[in-house]
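Late entry, written up from scratch paper. The run itself happened at the end of the previous shift, but nothing got recorded in the book at the time, so transcribing now.
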Amino acid sequence: MFDFRFYEIWREPEYIDRLLHGCLVSIELSTAGGILGMILGLVLVSAQGKSSPKLLSGFAQGYIETVRNTPFIVQLFFVAFGLPQLLHYRWSFEASALLAMTLNFSAYFAEVVRAGISSIPTGQIEAAGSLCLTKRQIFLDIVLPQALCNVYPSLTSQFVFLFLTTGLISEIGVEDLTWAGRFVADRNFRDFEVFIVLTVLYVAIVFGYKAIFNALNRYAFPWRSIR
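Output as recorded:
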């Protein structure tokens, strides 16, 4: 029978500090990447509008397809090691990870929101136009809120997936939760126990995110409950 020795983790304050710091890094980067990705995603959605120039629309579509059809680890390595060679700059690996996560999430966010916009009945848009609302008012006040409401479960699932992919950023030296687990396991040689702890921590953080998303859902889309 396997002899579990979780005390090999708890008895060293350094290990606890590393794990807590890793949790904080993963949460910070995924949250920042999600917010920035949402902003960039909305820009990409707007760039694909009917009134947008074909060149701009084609660039946005090409960007989305490129990101969605390449592995995140490839994008991460390109941003961390390729761009510095091309642009002759150097910044921290945390910043590289944040940029890669933002670019990745923005493409998926844009595609999800675009599907939500397509689900809005054209009759509503025509009715709003007959009331002399501008295209900007129609999009911001009528189309976008309903689209986000319709695809909100998909967006939250995509954000959770973004958080879980933060485990890959340890490959470029970012001290996230996965990196912290490997740090501990390499020193106490209790890999099984360490990764059980990592699993529990990841699940706990995901449930925390879901609780926040449920609260935001009730606040941002109050009309959903009266349907």
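Residues 160 and 206 are 7 Å apart (CA to CA).
(Scratch paper discarded after transcription.)
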